[in-house]
Amino acid sequence: DAGITQSPRHKVTETGTPVTLRCHQTENHRYMYWYRQDPGHGLRLIHYSYGVKDTDKGEVSDGYSVSRSKTEDFLLTLESATSSQTSVYFCAIRETPGLAGSYEQYFGPGTRLTVT
Amino acid sequence: GENVEQHPSTLSVQEGDSAVIKCTYSDSASNYFPWYKQELGKRPQLIIDIRSNVGEKKDQRIAVTLNKTAKHFSLHITETQPEDSAVYFCAASGTTSGTYKYIFGTGTRLKVLA
């Protein structure tokens, strides 16, 4: 599982409330990603990070912010949750390239978020 | 922007038959093409990948082929088994300004009928 954990694993919240999801990794990988998964849309990139305090937007970043103050933690925040943000959220890491130059990406277990 | 199209969206095959899933990518800078298998309620799991300097790669019953000129890549599963039933995602990745992003297809639900 590449040492990736996500918390919480399940959350139900009300429209308009702030929500923070946490991704934690134990293997010092530089790149971390947040995706959302919805039926018919596959996995869509929300934000990603290429180092501490280095982040960038993905294709569906509106309504989301991220922070990475430590290598091991990548936080995703919904400032004011909406029903359209009901989804399964996956964190992922990209392995730090070795001599052969690895490009492999591994996923965390996911967080199921319901906004009522 | 970058896009990956995946077909078909659903695929049913008889046990023992072969299954083929196809993807097309738009970004010519893409140089890495992984395939993921996702079982119900689980995380996507990497099953095979290919880099742009290789045309084909095999791992037991699964293989991936890449046609860079046409920007096509495909997943081939031979001798399908019921445990192959899952959703499969293709993705394309490349370096843009020194960062690495992955664009995913919308998935193929494979059903292997016993």
Question: In short, what is this structure?
Answer:
The complex is a heterodimer of chains A (116) and B (114). Chain A is mainly β and 116 residues long. Chain A contains no helices and eleven strands.
Topology, element by element:
The complex is a heterodimer of chains A (116) and B (114).
Chain A: E1 4-7, E2 10-13, E3 19-25, E4 31-38, E5 42-51, E6 54-57, E7 64-70, E8 73-78, E9 87-94, E10 105-107, E11 111-115
Parallel strand pairs in A: 2-11
Antiparallel strand pairs in A: 1-3, 3-8, 4-5, 4-9, 5-6, 7-8, 9-10, 9-11
Chain B: E1 4-7, E2 10-14, E3 19-25, E4 30-38, E5 45-51, E6 56-59, E7 62-67, E8 72-77, E9 86-96, E10 99-104, E11 108-113
Parallel strand pairs in B: 2-11
Antiparallel strand pairs in B: 1-3, 3-8, 4-5, 4-9, 6-7, 7-8, 9-10, 9-11
Describe this entry's structure for a reader.
The complex is a heterodimer of chains A (116) and B (114). Helices cover 0% and strands 57% of the residues of chain A. Chain A is mainly beta. In chain A, a hairpin with a 2-residue loop joins β7 and β8. Chain B is built from no helices and eleven strands. In chain B, strands 2, 4, 5, 9, 10 and 11 form a six-stranded mixed beta sheet that branches. The relative contact order of chain B is 0.34. Classes of the chains: A mainly beta (116), B mainly beta (114). At the A-B interface, β4, β5 and β10 of A face β5, β9 and β10 of B.
